[in-house]
UniProtKB/TrEMBL annotation:
It comes from Rahnella contaminans. It holds the Pfam family STAS_2. This is Lipid asymmetry maintenance protein MlaB. The gene is mlaB. CDD domains: STAS_anti-anti-sigma_factors (cd07043). PROSITE patterns: STAS. Residues 14-102 form the STAS domain. InterPro entries: MlaB, MlaB-like_STAS, MlaB_ABC_Transporter, STAS_dom, STAS_dom_sf.
Length: 102
């Protein structure tokens, strides 16, 4: 069973902790519009595990921000998440260079 996904909102930063997978992301998905309001940085450094569903959520959040005329930086990308992004060839969608990780 997956560990719960937790978040802390301090706009313009939203920090995620725990596991971001198909079992844990539903509560976040349901609250995302309110949670993402005013957020320009999504800190994922506290995520212990991300699966393909979680990665899809990150892609979707960046796209939603873009459609609203703002940019969403994903900060704290771990080596594991970096590998998952590379496996799906999403580096252009979720930049994983050193600037995006700070």
């Amino acid at each position: 069973m997956s560990e719960a996904l937790r978040w802390e909102s301090q706009p313009p930063r939203l920090t995620l902790q725990g596991e971001l997978d198909r079992e844990t992301l539903v509560a976040f998905w349901d609250a995302r519009k309110k949670l993402m309001s005013g957020v320009t940085t999504l800190d994922v450094s506290g995520l212990e595990r991300v699966d393909s569903s979680g990665l899809a959520l990150l892609v979707h959040l960046r796209e939603e921000a873009s459609q609203q005329g703002s940019a969403l930086t994903i900060a704290g990308i771990t080596d594991r998440l970096h590998t998952l992004i590379a496996l799906y060839n999403l580096q252009d969608i979720i930049p994983t260079d050193s600037l995006a990780n700070k």
